[in-house]
């Protein structure tokens, strides 16, 4: 009877150790895989518009209608897509950025002003567009969709 209990105890201990080792290997492998995959940030247009609208100073809020703000945000997303910063498909991808892409608020603001003019949006003040860009970039930062700021101040 004592021998049967000892053998049973040994089997239970071996099974427990085996389960622990298997679990540790699986968790370690998944942690390593997820470490190499870029975190997924979800851009929700309605949420972005609300965030940016609340971010804007009162004077800019008075100059832009919700439709104009929505169009400016859409233009900004199109610009990001043209720079390769907005993927066409949403999948877990390895972080494989070959070269850094630097976003300058001035460049984006200039692009948005040109698109606004082409699409008949009357911008009262260029500063309004700069505020929209700042607000949109703040939204990206809030959802975790931006990388680090460039360390070199001479980077264009």
Identify the notable features of this structure and list them briefly.
single chain; 156 residues; mainly alpha; 2 domains; 0% strand
Low-confidence stretches: none
Q: Measured on Cα atoms, how large is the radius of gyration?
A: 26 Å
Please indicate the percent range of residues in DSSP E strands (runs of 2 or more): under 5%
Mean pLDDT: 81
Helical stretch tally: 6
Task: Please estimate the helix content.
Answer: 55-70%
Q: Main β-sheet, in a few words?
A: none
Distance between the termini: 81 Å
What's the count of strands? 0
SSE topology string = HHHHHH
Number of domains: 2
Shape: elongated
Helix/strand/pairing category: mainly alpha
Layout of helices and strands:
Elements: H1 2-36, H2 45-55, H3 58-63, H4 66-82, H5 105-118, H6 126-142
Helix pairs in contact: 2-4, 2-6, 4-5, 4-6, 5-6
Structure description:
This protein has 156 residues and is mainly alpha-helical. It has two domains: 1-36; 45-142. Helices cover 64% and strands 0% of the residues. The protein contains six helices and no strands. The chain is elongated.
């Amino acid at each position: 009877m004592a021998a049967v209990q000892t053998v049973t105890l040994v089997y239970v201990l071996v099974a427990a150790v085996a389960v622990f080792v298997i679990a540790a290997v699986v968790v370690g492998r998944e942690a390593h895989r997820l470490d190499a995959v870029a975190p997924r940030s979800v851009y929700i247009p309605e949420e972005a518009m609300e965030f940016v609208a609340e971010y804007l100073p009162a004077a800019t809020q008075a100059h832009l209608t919700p439709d104009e703000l929505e169009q400016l945000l859409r233009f900004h997303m199109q610009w990001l897509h043209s720079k390769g910063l907005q993927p066409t498909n949403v999948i877990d991808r390895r972080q494989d950025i070959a070269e850094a892409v630097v976003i300058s608020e001035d460049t984006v603001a200039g692009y948005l002003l040109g698109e606004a003019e082409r699409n008949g949006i009357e911008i009262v003040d260029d500063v309004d567009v700069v505020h929209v860009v700042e607000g949109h970039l703040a939204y990206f930062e809030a959802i975790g969709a931006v990388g680090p700021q460039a360390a070199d101040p001479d980077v264009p």
